[in-house]
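Work Package 4 report. The design task specified in the project plan requires that, given a folded chain encoded as structure tokens, an amino acid be chosen for each position. We show below one input record used in the internal validation round.
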């Protein structure tokens, strides 16, 4: 699933009108699992690697896969929830809950690029038959499902956001995701 989709879906599922102060912890928790990927991509471009090498070889290299495992660890997200509750630092619990929601959304939508979501307890990867991007693994279905969920979440969130700026930002993100979908997910034929 694309990172902006995680942000929108996690806000729709976790943010409550009575506690908008938790918006930032939710957004941070939704970003943590993908943060290392952005660092990786910047590093790979700085190294001068072509796109095909970045995503076919470098992404799967062991040092990077070990780094990706940390941010994509469900046990670490659950630990953040438990610590937030125990220490009465509820923002930390929201960070952890948002991380876990990100992982749960990724599980059914990653095939070749599946993460080690149970690290450090296990190195097992759940290889889904569906990908959110790879047409060889039902990527059109995965991308369509993602877009529909994002649009439903956007319709739900828009009237619940308190400022015109946040509403405009959300609407712009939904429009960009829809545009990317229309450009990248072309019908077969």
């Amino acid at each position: 699933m694309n990172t902006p989709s995680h942000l929108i879906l996690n806000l729709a599922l976790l943010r409550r009108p009575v506690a908008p102060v938790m918006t930032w912890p939710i957004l941070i928790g939704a970003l943590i699992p993908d943060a290392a990927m952005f660092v990786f991509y910047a590093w790979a471009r700085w190294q001068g690697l072509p796109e095909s090498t970045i995503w076919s070889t470098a992404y799967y290299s062991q040092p990077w896969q070990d780094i990706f495992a940390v941010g994509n660890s469900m046990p670490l997200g659950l630990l953040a929830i438990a610590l937030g509750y125990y220490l009465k630092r509820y923002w930390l619990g929201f960070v952890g809950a948002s991380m876990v929601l990100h992982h749960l959304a990724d599980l059914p939508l990653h095939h070749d690029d599946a993460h080690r979501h149970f690290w450090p307890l296990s190195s097992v990867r759940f290889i889904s038959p569906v990908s959110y991007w790879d047409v060889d693994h039902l990527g059109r279905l995965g991308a369509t499902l993602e877009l529909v969920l994002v649009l439903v979440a956007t319709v739900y969130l828009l009237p619940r956001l308190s400022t015109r700026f946040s509403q405009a930002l959300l609407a712009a993100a939904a429009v960009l995701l829809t545009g990317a979908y229309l450009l990248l997910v072309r019908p077969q034929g």
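The chain has one domain: 3-182. Validation will be extended to a larger panel in the next phase.
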